[in-house]
C-alpha cells in the first residue's frame, strides 16, 4: 500500500529520522528518511522544531552538535553544520528569518546565519535541559537554571528572568529543574514543566517574576509539555509514563489522565486545530490519543529508541488534507530500508473498530525443508 507525505516526524536515539503517516480508521505507516546507514547510539537526535511559522522546514539537532535542516516539500536536506561550541548534546534548535539557533547542555546558545562565520553567543547561566523559540524570543531553562527569556532582535539581550517560588511549608528551598518549555499562543505567557512535578506559567508582561500559575502533578517527574487544542490547557508527560491534561486557568488543575504507557514519555506534540495528542516513549511506541475522549487511537511499536516527535499545528487524521498525487512509498521500499536497523513496520491495530489489518509476511523463494520423522 502506498501513502502520501507524512503528518508526523520522529527522531530516534540512534540518529534515525522517521516520517509517520496516520489516517483515521486505517493503518499507520513509518519510513526511515535519514540516518539508517550511520545509525549509532553515540549520535542521537535530541531536538527537533519547525523553522519559522510556515512549517515547511524542520531543524534537527543531534548529540554530536550536528545541525540539519529538512525541507518537507522537496523531501531533501538543505543545510548541515557540525561546528562545535560549548559542551554536551544539543537541547534545542530553531530558525527565525534566516537566523539559525541552537543550544547545548553546558548552557550556551548560539545564533548564526548560513555561510556566515560570525556567531552570536548567549550564556544562559548554567546547565540547560531545553531551549525553545517563538517570534524572536528565546526561552531557556535547566537544572538550577530557572526560566529566562532573550530577545533575538537585540542580539540576545535578557528580557525576563524567573524567580524561584517561596520556601515550602517546612521553610525549605524548592529546587529548580526546568525540563521543558511551551509558549502560550496569543499571549506573552510561557509555561514550563519541572523535574519535581510542577507546571508553572510565567507572565513577562507583568512585574511579577514568580509564576502566576503553579500546579503540581503529585509524585511525577515531568519531562515534556505541549500546548493543546483546548484553550488554556497543556499536555504534560512524566518519566514514569503518565500523561495528563492540565488546566492553566485560575490556580491550575490537573485533569485527564491518558493511559497505555509502559515507559517514560520522551516527547509530546499536539494539534491546535483538532483534539489529537501525539507522543513517543521509552517503550519504543508511537501513540496518538484523542484529547477529549482519552481514547488511544494508534499505538505503533518501532524498533528504535524514540527521542522526540514533531507534528504540524494543523495535524489531522483525515486523508483529504494530503496530496495523493505525490510520489508515494511502497511497502517493499520500507522493508528494504529498515532491514539495516532490523526494523519491521508492523501492522497497527485499529482501536476504533477492533479490526486487525493483514500481517505483512516476507516471501521466501526457497521451499521449507521437511524433517525426517
Q: Helix and strand string, N-terminal first?
A: EEEEEEEEEEEEEEEEEEEEEEEEEEEEH
Class based on secondary structure composition and strand pairing = mainly beta
The biggest sheet amounts to: 4 strands, antiparallel
Please state the average pLDDT score. 85
**Strand order in the sheet with the most strands:** 3-2-1-28
Plain-language structure description:
By secondary structure, the chain is mainly β. It folds into 2 domains: 43-161, Methylamine Dehydrogenase, Chain H (7 Propeller); 162-319, YVTN repeat-like/Quinoprotein amine dehydrogenase (Methylamine Dehydrogenase, Chain H), CATH 2.130.10.10. The chain has one helix spanning 331-338; strands at residues 8-12, 17-22, 28-34, 45-50, 57-62, 67-71, 76-81, 90-96, 99-104, 108-113, 119-123, 130-134, 137-142, 145-151, 157-161, 178-183, 190-194, 198-202, 213-216, 222-227, 233-238, 243-247, 253-258, 265-270, 276-281, 285-290, 296-301, 306-311. Strands 3-2-1-28 form a 4-stranded antiparallel beta sheet. Strands 4-5-6-7 form a 4-stranded antiparallel beta sheet, with no helix packed on it. A hairpin with a 3-residue loop joins strand 25 and strand 26. The model is unreliable at 321-373 (pLDDT under 50).
Amino acid at each position: 500500500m502506498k501513502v502520501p507525505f507524512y503528518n508526523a516526524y520522529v527522531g530516534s536515539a540512534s540518529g534515525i529520522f522517521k516520517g509517520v503517516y496516520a489516517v483515521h480508521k486505517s493503518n499507520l505507516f513509518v519510513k526511515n528518511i535519514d540516518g539508517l546507514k550511520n545509525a549509532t547510539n553515540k549520535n542521537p537526535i535530541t531536538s527537533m522544531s519547525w523553522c519559522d511559522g510556515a512549517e515547511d522546514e524542520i531543524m534537527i539537532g543531534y548529540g554530536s552538535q550536528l545541525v540539519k535542516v529538512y525541507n518537507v516539500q522537496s523531501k531533501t536536506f538543505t543545510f548541515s553544520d557540525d561546528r562545535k561550541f560549548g559542551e554536551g548534546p544539543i537541547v534545542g534548535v530553531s530558525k527565525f528569518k534566516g537566523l539559525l539557533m541552537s543550544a547545548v547542555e553546558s548552557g550556551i546558545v548560539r545564533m548564526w546565519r548560513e555561510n556566515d562565520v560570525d556567531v552570536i553567543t548567549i550564556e544562559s547561566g548554567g546547565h540547560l535541559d531545553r531551549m525553545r523559540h517563538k517570534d524572536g524570543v528565546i526561552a531557556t531553562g535547566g537544572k538550577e537554571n530557572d526560566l529566562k527569556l532573550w530577545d533575538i532582535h537585540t542580539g540576545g539581550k535578557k528580557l525576563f528572568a524567573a524567580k524561584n517560588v517561596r520556601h515550602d511549608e517546612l521553610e525549605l528551598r524548592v529546587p529548580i529543574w526546568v525540563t521543558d518549555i511551551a509558549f502560550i499562543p496569543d499571549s506573552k505567557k510561557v509555561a514550563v514543566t519541572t523535574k519535581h512535578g510542577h507546571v508553572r506559567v510565567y507572565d513577562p508582561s507583568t512585574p511579577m517574576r514568580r509564576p502566576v500559575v503553579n500546579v503540581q502533578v503529585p509524585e511525577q517527574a515531568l519531562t515534556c509539555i505541549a500546548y493543546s487544542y483546548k484553550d488554556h490547557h497543556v499536555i504534560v508527560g512524566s518519566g514514569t509514563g503518565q500523561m495528563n491534561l492540565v488546566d492553566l486557568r485560575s490556580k491550575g488543575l490537573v485533569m485527564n489522565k491518558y493511559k497505555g504507557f509502559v515507559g517514560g514519555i520522551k516527547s509530546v506534540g499536539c494539534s491546535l486545530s483538532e483534539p489529537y495528542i501525539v507522543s513517543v516513549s521509552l517503550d519504543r511506541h508511537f501513540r496518538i490519543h484523542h484529547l477529549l475522549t482519552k481514547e488511544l487511537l494508534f499505538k505503533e511499536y518501532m524498533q528504535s529508541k524514540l527521542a522526540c516527535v514533531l507534528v504540524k499545528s494543523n495535524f489531522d487524521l483525515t486523508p483529504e488534507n494530503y496530496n495523493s498525487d505525490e510520489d508515494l512509498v511502497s511497502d517493499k521500499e520500507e522493508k528494504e530500508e529498515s532491514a539495516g536497523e532490523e526494523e519491521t513496520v508492523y501492522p497497527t491495530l485499529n482501536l476504533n473498530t477492533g479490526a486487525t489489518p493483514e500481517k505483512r509476511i516476507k516471501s521466501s523463494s526457497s521451499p521449507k525443508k521437511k524433517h525426517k520423522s
